Task: structure prediction
Amino acid sequence: MNKNIFYLLLGISILFTSCIPSKDLIYLQNKNGSSTDMPISEVMSKPYRLQVNDVLSITIKADDPKLVTIFNPTNKGETDNVGSSLYFSGYTVDDHGNIRIPVLGEINAIGYTVEELRLKIEKQLLDDYFKKEANIFVIVRMAGFKYTINGEVGSMGTKFLFQDHVNIMEAIANSGDITITGDRKAVTIIRQTPTGTEMHDIDLTDVNVMKSPYYNLQPNDFIYVKPLKQKTWGTGKTGIESLTTIITLISLFTTTLVLLKL
Result:
């Protein structure tokens, strides 16, 4: 009788410890107990500075399109320069930190923001080729916002979003969300910077994560979602799954005892 009670208590304890609680699955919870309407102060993230292998879309315009045709040899509209085509038609920052633009030649781009590079190209055009009356207009954009995600998500791999700013919640949603066995409390962001590699864990179940400088991603960030310990235990993700596993184990144990007594 005492053994039966022991096994029952053991099963119940395993059932409760192996299940994944809902508080580990809900994003952006208010853990301070304060009002949910409390505004979250925006954290000013550092502007992204171009790195080797970044791909850019650069378009030069003027009042008279014929004046700038030579600088835009493909002669295609911006709608043609989206998606994977920019890998071939865009301007790639080479190993020396330069991009090559027709007529202008090599221009150093590494370490510049997109806006700084735009102003640099515009200044060179006005200094060497045009007067202000030509109304030169330069557009510089990243060829899509690229990030890589791995681990416990619906869709792993390198992703592209065609927008200027992406936060971690948007990136995860675009990757099929974190699976039920993914650890939302310690999502790792790996970021390449001019001074080296930075690695930081953020808690997506806490609303204060929006104050983190890692909440807003930068191009080429790597996101890793670790598995919860419940996945390695193999007892089930929910109470029903855990109960089923426990019943199966008890049945197997009982059957083994019966066979041994025969």
About this structure: Residues 49 and 112 are 5 Å apart (CA to CA). The longest strand covers residues 182-193. The beta strands are 55-61, 91-92, 98-101, 105-108, 137-142, 145-151, 157-161, 182-193, 196-202, 221-227. Helices lie at 2-18, 85-89, 114-128, 168-174, 229-233, 239-261.
